[in-house]
Amino acid sequence: DTAVSQTPKYLVTQMGNDKSIKCEQNLGHDTMYWYKQDSKKFLKIMFSYNNKELIINETVPNRFSPKSPDKAHLNLHINSLELGDSAVYFCASSQDRPSTDTQYFGPGTRLTVL
Amino acid sequence: AQTVTQSQPEMSVQEAETVTLSCTYDTSENNYYLFWYKQPPSRQMILVIRQEAYKQQNATENRFSVNFQKAAKSFSLKISDSQLGDTAMYFCAFDGEYGNKLVFGAGTILRVKS
User: Fold this and answer.
1) Cβ separation of A98 and B43 shorter than 8 Å?
2) Contact (CB<8Å) A105/B101
3) pLDDT, tens digit, for every residue of B50-97?
4) Cα A69 to Cα A17: distance, rounded to the nearest angstrom
5) Do A45 and B102 make contact, defined as CB atoms within 8 angstroms?
């Protein structure tokens, strides 16, 4: 059973399009995250949600909008895609803060904007 | 803001030998948490080991151990008896006592050679 799943795993799209990436965790965790890994493999947090409430927003452009319909899901919607949005996006979850509880990562979604 | 520095972009080691990956960090906090994550070619992020700053004893997990030097703000990872399956990108990460996110270093690519 996959603990943290993401769909799709690969996404290729044109500039200007709107796309969504879905994330689901079946671990019963309260906190979920979105990270972006750029072409140089640098990994940086974008958002963090706790019990469906946004607690971290790391100066991400407004074109990125996370949505948490329930504790088990944290989706990422991206409007007006740009070339620079090409990256691997990771969803993660933890019961509590990552310092006190292991953070589990999804398999990543490789987004390519043409 | 906390920063994490990994000064070795790439490392190589022969199978069965020992290798040490370096990590330094900058923080003004006294209590915090440090992690090493492994990212194999499959892209999956896997927690290797964690260290709590208030614990003086270095963390160990089977063949993986850390050398935590709090005064020097250094947190190196030692891999003993290296195996081909250890080939991956290794990320050092930090979470503050009151933070709610992981701050990652740039990563070190480790190649284990047969």
Assistant:
1) no
2) no
3) 999 988 899 999 999 999 999 999 999 999 999 999 999 999 999 887
4) 23
5) yes
Summarize chain A as % helix, strand, coil (round to 5). 5, 55, 40
The pairing of strands A19-25 and A4-7 is antiparallel
Using CA atoms, how far residue A10 sits from A50, A87, B66, in Å, is 27, 10, 35
Question: For chains A and B, what is the number of CB pairs under 8 angstroms?
Answer: 58
Reported as half-sphere exposure (CB side, CA atoms, 13 A), residue A73 has a value of: 11
Chain A residues touching chain B at CB-CB below 8 Å: 31, 33, 40-45, 48, 50, 55-56, 58, 88, 90, 92, 97-100, 102-103, 105, 107-108, 110
The pLDDT, as a whole number, for residue B101 is: 82
DSSP track, A57-79: E-S--TTEEEEEEETTEEEEEE-
**Which residue type is seen at A35?**
Y
Whole-angstrom CA distances from A90 to A38, A43, A67 are 11, 9, 15
Tens digits of residue pLDDT in A3-60? 999 999 999 999 999 999 999 999 999 999 999 999 989 999 999 888 888 888 887 8
| Residues of chain B with C-beta less than 8 angstroms from the C-beta of A102 | 47, 50
A98-107, B40-49, B71-80: range with highest mean pLDDT? B71-80
Residue contact B100–A48, C-beta within 8 A:
yes
